[in-house]
Amino acid sequence: MPAIAPSILAADFSQLGEQVKLTEAGGANRVHVDVMDGHFVPNLSMGSIVCKGLRPVTKMPLEVHLMVEAPAKFLDDFVKSGADSFIFHLEVEPEPTEMIQHIRSLGKKVGLAVNPNFAIEKLKRYIPEIDLALCMTVFPGFGGQKYIPESTARIRQIRQWIRELNPACELEVDGGIDARTIGEASAAGANVFVAGTAIFGAKEGATAATKHLHDLAAAAAT
Ligand SMILES: O=C(CO)[C@H](O)[C@H](O)COP(=O)(O)O
Ligand SMILES: [Fe+2]
């Protein structure tokens, strides 16, 4: 079963709780919280206070995507604020085992992300240690970008390694996922789909858009 993770980066922050509930009504499975520090990526976004605000509003797990240079610094505050899982980048932690174990010791799930120009071979050896691999399908830092077509072959390769090394590991895609691209990513082997603009910017509303993406991903799944 595919999972849809609405990225609140694209939500209307004047009514964030309501926006998240709309996606939950459409069958969303987890909330994707994009944390940017202005160093690892050229943009600033949100911190743990957003998780604290959302925690009482939704039953969905809160997944924190750390696009920051020093992810370890922020973990405790996010845990206190109700975060359920952390994704950090292999670019900033080239030897990630200690960080993976630290996140597990906090009782949280752990994901490892790679940017579109990062050698995925370096991710391979850590697949047995993680709960989720995140294949970025845009360069991180901004919502509303276009899916990079070369991502599809990368997704297919990572899925093959996951089958061989750790079949329980999830494969997430993030960036430019919409009704036109989700089928391709799903057919290539992704099973968790982050979508911001395609959900919160949808003419038909966030509930219908979430359901539509879910149906398309399920129909294309291999
Ligand atoms: O990590 C991210 C950006 O760095 C976001 O999760 C991603 O861009 C989602 O936005 P959209 O669906 O609009 O592309
Ligand atoms: Fe993200």
TrEMBL record:
Protein EC: 5.1.3.1
Positions that bind substrate: S7, H65, G141, F142, G143, G144, D174, G175, G176, G196, T197
Catalytic activity: D-ribulose 5-phosphate = D-xylulose 5-phosphate
Residues at the active site: D34, D174
SUPFAM superfamilies assigned to the protein according to its UniProt record, in alphabetical order: Ribulose-phoshate binding barrel
Protein name from the UniProt record: Ribulose-phosphate 3-epimerase
GO biological process: pentose catabolic process; pentose-phosphate shunt
PANTHER family, alphabetized: RIBULOSE-5-PHOSPHATE-3-EPIMERASE (PTHR11749)
Necessary cofactors: Co(2+); Zn(2+); Mn(2+); a divalent metal cation
GO molecular function, one term: metal ion binding
UniProt GO cellular component terms: cytoplasm
Organism: Limnoglobus roseus
EC main group: isomerase
Pathway annotation from the record: Carbohydrate degradation
Pfam families with a match to the protein in the record: Ribul_P_3_epim (PF00834)
Protein task: Catalyzes the reversible epimerization of D-ribulose 5-phosphate to D-xylulose 5-phosphate.
Family: Belongs to the ribulose-phosphate 3-epimerase family.
Cofactor: binding comment: Binds 1 divalent metal cation per subunit.
